[in-house]
Amino acid sequence: MPAPLRIGDLVVDPPILQAPMAGFTNAAFRQIVREFGGSGLLATEMVNARGFVWLDENEAEHPDRLWGVADEPRPLAVQIWDNDAATMAKVGRRLVEEYRVSIVDINFGCPVRQVTEKAHSGSYLLREPQRMFEIIQRLVKACRPTPVTAKIRLGCSPENVNCNEVARVVEEAGAAALTVHGRTAKDMFRGNADWERISEIKSHLRAIPLIGNGDLDSAEKVVAAFDNYNVDGVMIARACLGRPWLFAQAAAALRGETIPPEPTLAQQRDVMLHHYRLVTQRFGEDKGTILMRKYACCYAQGKRGARHFRSHVASVSSAEEFYAIVDQHFPITDPQP
């Protein structure tokens, strides 16, 4: 069993983190992950710092991406993004004072064009380490004593891999931990995450922990990441969206225990319906049903008839339609041999 992860004064045990994912890791999803257990640190969706400030100044409701944050169990990280140090610091201080978050994480890894090319944020900033330094340093000062962490990719492109340099900058600026996704921004999610490259970064850090991220879709791969690479923690991302029990499986494997089996298809269906009820309680039937379409597709992934189910559930707009599609098309038993 790897040692607990220490991020500043925060102890993350087990050292398995749930990745912040835009459009997915809201309070409903986090509640379900927490019910299964196994993740030492959960995170919100990434929050646009500039948008947060605008809402605040116009006395509007704070972003839906902060739904549940004030009241849910700790530890909990909130990830924010922007390219302006003063804006980031202002939002970070509010998150610490008003929301009492456990960690403020900075997104330097998002490869989506709307964030990179249009807003010059996320992984775009990997080409400007000095600007990253200024943002981190300003945020660390504003959030103290709450730890500030950073998430990066290997670089902007395979021809411009600068993760070692960036890692040193992140630590020198005062960040308490570094998470690295093992692809470049240009790669998006194509190909395989390069865990050798992630592991090499450890020698460029003096004291802060290194968290590896990418392609961890089984308990066995989580164990292998700790066994084969020089990381202090791991972060599970896309693989958990339709399998929120993956964290519990990985934690059991790290303890040397028997890995809990996948829930039956009927049990997975019940988890999905529980998720749907949580979403509609917050957003109402109309908006909640539309939001649930993408989650339902995740729960179906890899199952018999998944494409057929997705084609139907992708257009539902009411609870009646949603339950009818689930009853008719979501498999509850494996096909007979």
From TrEMBL:
Its EC number is 1.3.1.-. Coiled coil: none annotated. Its cofactor is FMN. It catalyses: a 5,6-dihydrouridine in tRNA + NADP(+) = a uridine in tRNA + NADPH + H(+); a 5,6-dihydrouridine in tRNA + NAD(+) = a uridine in tRNA + NADH + H(+). The active site is at C110 (proton donor). FMN binds at P20, M21, A22, Q79, K151, H181, A237, R238. One of its GO terms (molecular function) is tRNA binding. It is an enzyme of class 1 (oxidoreductase). PROSITE patterns: UPF0034 (PS01136). PANTHER family: TRNA-DIHYDROURIDINE(47) SYNTHASE [NAD(P)(+)]-LIKE (PTHR45846). Belongs to the dus family. This is tRNA-dihydrouridine synthase. It comes from Novipirellula artificiosorum. The lineage of its organism: Bacteria, Pseudomonadati, Planctomycetota, Planctomycetia, Pirellulales.
